[in-house]
Amino acid sequence: MTLIDTAEIYGDGRSEKLIGRVIAGQRDRVFLVSKVWPTHVSGNGIARACDASLARLGTDHLDLYLLHWPSREADLSSIVAAFETLRAAGKIRTWGVSNFKVGDMEDLFRVPHGDRCATNQVPYNLGNRSIEQDLLPWCERHGMPVMAYSPLGGTGASLLRDATLAYIGAAHNCSAAAVALAWTIRSGNAIAIPEAGSAEHVKENAVAFSLTLTPDELRALDAAHPAPNR
């Protein structure tokens, strides 16, 4: 609940500036994540992008720094080396990637220290289970959690109006969002990072931590939103 996810590209830096104002004086209370845009990775671009993000956020370190998308601007070995240099300097605690497919992850693990990647941030929710086909099992085999973005379906999604989610939520006296989040984190191998536009949303989301879906409920959700064929 204390993880804040942002990126240099969000609002062209305005998101980081806003978060910097919000966390001022309480930096130790949050786990701070930001991302470098893939066109900013050549030369010393990652170092410069990180410094700019730190300045906007008003902090001296990130808890996690991600490559936002796979990049053709530099090879993976130089990207990993840049992340490792930032880690050694104390500017980031850990690093990872975002929107990588299995082939991308395999390429990453072939370069020196590529296996130090902490996570892969990808879309994952009850209505979008495509990573269960190959990426999620791959990450599980390598002991790597995935960060599920859009766990509530994303902007404009109809997932939270799903009848099965509503029915299960009513049975547990909670929101459909809490059920959707409980489903996403059910295995212990996924970290969900839902949007929350109000304090009330945050309270609704928090219910997911104490919500255990029954086998019958999981079967009902599987029937309504089938897993992809492996």
Characterization of the model:
The chain is α/β, with parallel strands linked by helices. It has helices at residues 14-23, 45-57, 76-88, 102-110, 135-141, 163-172, 176-184, 199-206, 215-224, and strands at 3-5, 31-36, 62-67, 92-98, 120-123, 146-149, 190-193. The protein is globular, with a radius of gyration of 18 Å. The chain starts with a strand and ends in a 6-residue tail after the last helix.
Q: Give the CA-based shape.
A: globular
The number of helices is: 9
Portion of residues within helices:
25-40%
- Provide the residue-averaged pLDDT: 96
* SSE ordering: EHEHEHEHEHEHHEHH
Q: Give the beta-strand count.
A: 7
What is the first-to-last residue Cα distance?
A: 32 Å
Low-confidence stretches: none
Rg calc? 18 Å
The percentage of residues in β strands lies in: 5-15%
User: Main sheet: which strands, in order across?
Assistant: 1-2-3-4-5-6-7
Counting helices, strands and paired strands, the structural category is: alpha/beta
Sketch the major β-sheet: 7 strands, parallel
